[in-house]
Design brief:
The protein has twelve helices and twelve strands. By secondary structure, the protein is of the alpha+beta class.
Length: 385
């Protein structure tokens, strides 16, 4: 009876969580290999997170202007998106939309692409003209003030830093001189940074006086944006009313869709690398310690306990590597923000959690190969030279 009790105690002491932490000792037994494995997993995880963040950042940059506007936009009939289609409205329509029940404000804007001449280079920007004191202008200034008079412009802070534009700088667009009166922050759009001027200036540059491209419609409190869209289209012929979020989704699909495929493929490759690193590390460590595992089987350690042992090592490697990879990704995003601020890497907590869960699950799956090897291992191996 005592021999059975002693054997049970020995088995309990050898399993993960028992008195002798074998899994931890095996992981820490060769620090150099462990460090290399952790760095490899962390690098793969960081690459996955950075590519995922870049993909999301491209989408956020494509819709950075719309994301700061009211819930409903009105354009010319037939328009489907904000950035690529031409919309021309008679500015008198703003008054008619304003009178629709449920409309609190209908602010006209005139937006279009502008090829700016900056220090001998031609730079594409999205020029937005708005009426001073109304919606549509820069939502955050890094320096200077908003445009108030003809010929004044606010340029994106990243664009200004890249080309040495300061308050008071004069630049040219379509033969006209524009004076920089401010620099806006958070307006670095996807490939096309934002610039803001008065609608009078934008219409004159575009040679389309008394027009607007879109109306920014703010609903009255308590009125749903979807309901207001239907009211506007029923009351004002010749226009198309859209929910802001629907326009933003179409713009993201249009401008970011071409990059989604390659980025998704790169993310999948990086994830596969992380899985392979975990699998190879766990498998090689298991083979290297074959005699140790044979000894454990010889003294009666069960198949289930051996599987837990290997799974614990794989899971620990995945969790620690993921945590280190998240740190690498945050550091990489910070470096990109300093060295190349025009590229946005938008990391989220959900990305890190998703990566941690995925790495843990894949680590457990990767542990199946060495577990099968252990299951076939002959305990007599422990007694061979």
């Amino acid at each position: 009876m005592s021999s059975i009790t002693d054997r049970a105690r020995t088995k309990a002491a050898l399993v993960p969580g028992g008195q002798v932490p074998i899994a931890r000792r095996q992981l820490l037994g060769e620090p150099a290999k462990l460090v290399v494995a952790l760095l490899a997993v962390a690098a793969a995880v960081a690459l996955v997170l950075l590519l995922t963040g870049l993909r999301r950042g491209l989408g956020e940059q494509a819709t950075v202007y719309l994301d700061h506007q009211p819930a409903v936009l009105v354009g010319q009939a037939g328009t489907r998106d904000f950035l690529s289609q031409t919309s021309v409205l008679d500015e008198a329509l703003a008054g008619r939309v304003q009178r629709v029940a449920g409309v609190d404000d209908a602010a006209p804007i005139s937006e279009g692409y502008a090829m700016l001449s900056l220090h001998g280079k031609r730079v594409l920007a999205l020029l937005v003209g708005y009426d001073p004191g109304r919606r549509g202008g820069p939502w955050r200034l890094a320096e200077g003030r908003a445009p108030r008079a003809f010929g004044e412009v606010v340029v994106d802070d990243v664009l200004a830093a890249e080309h040495g534009l300061a308050v008071g700088t004069r630049l040219r667009f379509r033969g006209e001189a524009l004076t920089v009166v401010g620099r806006s922050r958070g307006t670095s759009g996807f490939m096309t940074p934002l610039a803001f001027t008065t609608r009078e200036t934008a219409n004159a540059l575009n040679e389309q006086p008394q027009t607007a491209t879109f109306l920014l419609v703010t609903p009255v409190a308590g009125i749903s944006p979807a309901e207001l869209v239907g009211r506007i289209e029923a009351a004002v012929p010749g226009v198309a009313a859209h929910l802001r979020d629907e326009l933003a989704a179409r713009d993201r699909d249009l401008f970011v869709g071409a990059f989604s495929g390659p980025l998704a493929a790169m993310i999948a490759i990086a994830a596969a690398v992380a899985i392979l690193v975990i699998a190879i590390t766990v498998y090689s460590a298991t083979r290297d310690r074959a005699r140790e595992y044979a000894t454990l089987k010889a003294i009666g350690l069960s198949r289930r306990a051996l599987l837990r042992l290997v799974s614990f090592q794989a899971g620990a490697l995945a969790v620690a590597g993921t945590a280190l990879g998240v740190g690498f990704a945050l550091a990489g995003a910070a470096v990109v923000a300093v060295l190349a601020p025009k590229y946005l890497i938008a990391l989220t907590v959900s990305d890190a959690l998703w990566m941690a869960v995925a790495a843990f699950i894949f680590a457990l799956l990767a542990a199946l190969a060495p577990a099968r090897y252990l299951d076939r291992l002959d305990p007599a191996t422990a007694f061979r030279r």
